[in-house]
Amino acid sequence: MSSKIVLGWRELAVLPSLGIAGIRAKIDTGARSSALHVDAHWRYVEAGEPWVGFRLSPGAVGAGEVEAAAPVFDEREVTDSGGHRTRRVFIRTVLSLAGAEREIEINLSDRRGMRFPMLLGRTAVAQVFTIDPARSFLHGRARRRVPRS
């Protein structure tokens, strides 16, 4: 019997260090790295080290816009599902999901046309989680936006 936590193909992820209380994430074991949609990002130097600031709209009800910053962990080429290569900034942050917390690498990208603002790749889920592709939102669901009258 496995001691790994079962996830569905989509889940609600929390990135507490970035102030993101809930963001819809697609679990993609075909992708090596994880990606987070940002509306804008900028680089700067703090205490002699490279940092990146960024702004995003996680999409959760009442979440509004989030602005965060993190040290630049790496910068490398990433090939998307269409075969296009782009250079992306990577950060390390805590992922809280299904009662487990772990530090993961995330690249900052433009996922504007995608249904999920976050993609969790296989390195983020390895050794802790197992995926059931027939199920979704096993550990909580994002509340739907209620239109204002």
Structure description:
With 149 residues, the protein is mainly β. It has one domain (5-132): Acid Proteases (Cathepsin D, subunit A, domain 1), CATH 2.40.70.10. The protein contains one helix and twelve strands, in the order βββββββββββαβ. The protein has one helix at residues 122-125, and strands at residues 5-8, 10-15, 20-28, 34-37, 40-46, 49-56, 66-71, 74-79, 85-97, 100-109, 118-121, 129-132. A hairpin with a 2-residue loop joins β9 (85-97) and β10 (100-109). The chain is globular. The N and C termini lie far apart (51 Å). Residues 145-149 have low confidence and may be disordered. This is RimK/LysX family protein. Residues 6-140 form the Retropepsin-like aspartic endopeptidase domain.
List keywords for this structure.
149 residues, mainly beta, Cathepsin D, subunit A, domain 1, three-stranded antiparallel beta sheet, 1 helix, 12 strands, 54% strand, globular, RimK/LysX family protein
List the helices and strands and how they pair.
Layout: E1 5-8, E2 10-15, E3 20-28, E4 34-37, E5 40-46, E6 49-56, E7 66-71, E8 74-79, E9 85-97, E10 100-109, E11 118-121, H1 122-125, E12 129-132
Oligomer category: single chain
Q: In CATH terms, what is the architecture? A: Beta Barrel
What is the CA–CA distance across the termini? 51 Å
The counted number of beta strands is 12
Q: Would you identify the CATH H-level superfamily?
A: Acid Proteases
Give the strand order, joined by hyphens, for the main sheet: 2-3-11-4-10-9-8
Query: Percentage of helical residues?
Result: under 10%
Pairing-aware structural class of the strands and helices?
mainly beta
- CATH class placement: Mainly Beta
User: How many domains would you count in the coordinates?
Assistant: 1
What is the number of helices?
A: 1
Mean pLDDT: 88
Order of helices and strands: EEEEEEEEEEEHE
Hey, roughly how much beta strand do the residues contain? over 45%
What about the largest sheet? 7 strands, mixed
Low-pLDDT windows of residues:
145-149
From the alpha carbons, calculate the radius of gyration and give it in angstroms: 15 Å
CATH fold category name: Cathepsin D, subunit A, domain 1
Dominant shape? globular
InterPro entries: Asp_endopeptidase (IPR008503), Peptidase_aspartic_dom_sf (IPR021109)
Protein name: RimK/LysX family protein
Pfam families: Zn_protease (PF05618)
Domain Retropepsin-like aspartic endopeptidase: 6-140
